[in-house]
Amino acid sequence: MTESLFTTEGLIVIFYLLAIFGIGVLGARKTKTFRDYFSTSGSLGLIILIGTVLATQWGGVTLLGIVGFGYQHLWFGAWYSLGAAIRFLFWALLMAVVLRKVNPFSISEWFGMRFDNKNAMVMTILNLIVSLGLLGGQFLAFGAVVSVFFDVPVQTAVIVGAVMVTVYTILGGMYGVAYTDVVQIVITTAAAVGMVLYLWLTQGSFAVLRTQAVYPENYFNAMNVTPLGDLSMGWLFFVTLIFLWLADLFLNHNMQRMVSAENLKVAYWAPIFGGMGYVLIAYISPAIGAYSRVVLGTGLENPDQAFPLLAQELLPAYMAGLVAAALLAVVMSSGDSYLLGPSTLAANDLYRAFNPGASEERVLAVSRIITLAYAGITLYSALFFDTIIGLILTYLTIGWAVIPALGASVAWRKATSNAAFWSMSVGGAVNALLMLNFSYGWVPSINAMFPEMPNYYVGWIGFALALIIMVVGSLIEGEEGIPRNVRQPVATDGGEEVEDLEDRADAALRQVQY
Predict the structure, then answer these.
(1) pLDDT digits (tens, 9 = 90+) for 215-228
(2) How far is residue 81's CA from residue 62's CA, in Å, rounded to a whole number?
(3) CATH for 114
């Protein structure tokens, strides 16, 4: 049952939103230049960085989407979460060390250094496109939470959430985002763990749940997945999810956190702890989904709303208000990062590229204007989707085609600039066209080739093309196609030749003007 905003639950939420707004204002006092706005000028310690890394990924998917998966099948949610843990290991082991040591200003600048400027521009464009889906998913999640707890229409709630996230992101920049993220991850973790303990005490343990008749056959069976046939929950589905998790590694909010770290050790350990956090989520969120079947029944129309409906059904007003605040916290903590990353990237790589003499203050002002415009475009896009995960996966399918070039940039010295450019361009374009065709049916015969298949499976096609172009194109071009500052060994201060990619990239940073 929805309530007025001016109840106990509503007043708690209003107080929370005002507090977050206040933290954004405090962040604004530290934001003097565009570099402060973009990356805190590399001053975040381990605790703050762990908080913002966790909070960025614990978005609407974590306590709404994964709980909804758990409502349908316990291990549906668990496997989804474990895919995220693998993604964090790739971040820490493959990217964090190299990119933090080189310390480029953005992910586009890294591609400009490692390959060339046309690759940097493709990276900027893809960031702007794919981030629309992730940010829009958080706007939808905000609307879902508010509409469950309070007597507010969903679209109105989505708009209010977009305005809140946009205002404090514009004010505080990366300082405001990082500090609010830490507050929000503490609130979120406490609420999620507390909810599971409360359910265990009031509804019984999993041993008790297994005796209930509300669960379908094999609901608790981790291995109840088919090799290929069940495209909604088979092994191919879970492998696909891992690649979709990896598909957001190229987004600039990840780079912002690496370059915001005060040193290399902090940049490495923050994503490691992020992966550990998702191992915890692999238990908590599916468990909440399982309890929801007992309390709410089996006919829930929108499983994404299971957690807020559960809190409203079981908890006293003040506790339900705290859960509402926590759910909004997890949504806003991702939304601010998905907004700041691409908008600052556009300011640096588009505005600054054409206005190289612009002052830091001027670029800062333009960046805030771009942030506002990008939020408006994303809000318009989000209103056309009904589900959080559906919106996110649609856009990540496009980003899936970037994985070969991103991996090659940090791990394969023989990767060439032209191969990277065409790999991302062709793979991304193919996936985008296939996804649009699924939505609008321009060529029905193509859609007929994938009967009853979730649309994001077409991402394998663009990924395969991108991988082939990356590998074959680089091998055909050979040594001459490799950028000179990567192809040739560089001299260290001791005058010795080195083959280490980190040192080559470090030398490239000093050579490339971008």
Answers:
(1) 887 788 776 654 44
(2) 8
(3) 1.20.1730.10
